Amino acid sequence: MTIKRQLEDKRRLFGIHEYAFAKTSDLLFSMGTRLLCEGNQCGHYGATWACPPAVGSYNSCVAKCRSYENVCLLSTVTDLKGQYDFRGWHRARIFHEAATAKSARLFRAHYPGALVLSTEGCILCDQCTYPDAPCRYPDQIFPSVEGYGIVVMDLASKTGLSYNNGPETVTYFSFVLF
Ligand code: SF4
Known about the structure:
Shape: globular
Bound molecules: iron/sulfur cluster
Pfam families: DUF2284 (PF10050)
InterPro entries: DUF2284_metal-binding
Protein name: DUF2284 domain-containing protein
Organism: Eubacterium maltosivorans
């Protein structure tokens, strides 16, 4: 069975809202996206192995992505109880990372070297070891897609995926390159 068929079969079980396949040549990279990371509004810059500068230079991230041929973009959507529903935002992150991990296992059964990128740092440990000791789970982390300089909205738009799913919802994206 093809990976597309398998993903479609598992989509609801994994909690994926939408997904699309594209070529990595469709990816738009921007140094500006990377510079937003360095602005550190999220607080993850220089705080985890999944974010810059630990993920490598902008050019090395672009080159790594370009070394793959295909990309699958997938999204999750979680309802929030208002703009300041911080528990809801956290719940959304956990839900999205779980969906990403399930998808990663599916892809890596076919493509062991698949690169899986997700959003906003890493939530696997209460306290990240960065930079004092190696990552505890290097095979399980999903580096930040923004840290790799990818313009998420561009591929979402090209593939017809909804970037915004309405007020009082949060939409997260992951990228699987294979
Ligand atoms: S798995 Fe743990 S040590 Fe590794 S990047 Fe994530 S939080 Fe840091």
